[in-house]
Every structure is written in C-alpha cells, then in structure tokens.
Design brief:
The structure is a single chain. Helix 1 crosses helix 5. This protein is 79% helix and 0% strand. The protein has one domain: NusB-like (N-utilizing Substance Protein B Homolog, Chain A). The chain is an all-alpha fold. The chain is globular, with a radius of gyration of 14 Å.
Length: 124
C-alpha cells in the first residue's frame, strides 16, 4: 500500500521505487517478493481498477478520493481478483489500513466500496 501511494504521487518506474522503498523498510525475502508482486500487478492494472472504483463509489468523484484511499482500494480490488486470499480477509485488512493511515470515516467508505465490488464479482 505504501509503495502504491508513493507511485501514485510520483509515477516512478516500478523497480526504482521498490529499491528506494526497501532501503528503509525491512521485511523477509518472501514478504518482500509478495509485496512487490502485489504492487506491480496493481500499478499495471490501475486503469481497470480505477474504473471499478468509479463504478462502485456511489456519489463520489474519483478525483476527490484521498490518495491513500485510492491506494488501499486499488490494492484490495487487485488482490480480490488475483489471489486466493479470502475476500473477507482482504476487506478487513483494507478497512484497518484505511483507519490507520487515512481516517475513521475512510474505513466505512472503503468497506462500502469493497463490499459492493465483492458482491459484483460473486455475481459474474
């Protein structure tokens, strides 16, 4: 999520951003590889992910969303579509990230958008 936020603000090359990020962040190799995979996949699919967010963020203009909320939503939707992680776990983690890094209100907003996205994915 932090790499996505940084990328959204700077549009840096993926590999350069990852190198900078991991200079200050510490993680096991397996965790680092998983985080990089999620970051790269999310950043590559950003146009499609943003369209999903716009479709499910009722009464919100995309450009008014906080950058951190965009990063959280993009990551969670990518993870719902591209991993075996249970959607309930993804939703819960996203809401906690929103509460921690954004605002208490963002937790409810992120939950509502992701719940709508999850329901639409189950139908398709």
């Amino acid at each position: 999520m932090q790499m996505l936020f940084q990328w959204d603000m700077s549009q840096q090359d993926f590999s350069k951003l990852e190198v900078k990020f991991w200079k200050s962040a510490k993680a096991a190799d397996k965790t680092r590889a998983f985080a990089n995979k999620l970051f790269e996949g999310t950043a590559k699919d950003v146009t499609a992910l943003d369209a999903i967010i716009v479709k499910h963020a009722d009464n919100w203009r995309f450009e008014r969303l906080a950058a951190i909320d965009r990063a959280i939503l993009r990551l969670a939707i990518h993870e719902m579509n591209g991993t075996d992680t249970p959607p309930k776990v993804i939703l819960n983690e996203a809401v906690e990230l929103a509460k921690k890094f954004s605002s208490e209100e963002s937790g409810a907003f992120v939950n509502g958008v992701l719940d709508a996205v999850h329901k639409s994915l189950k139908v398709n």
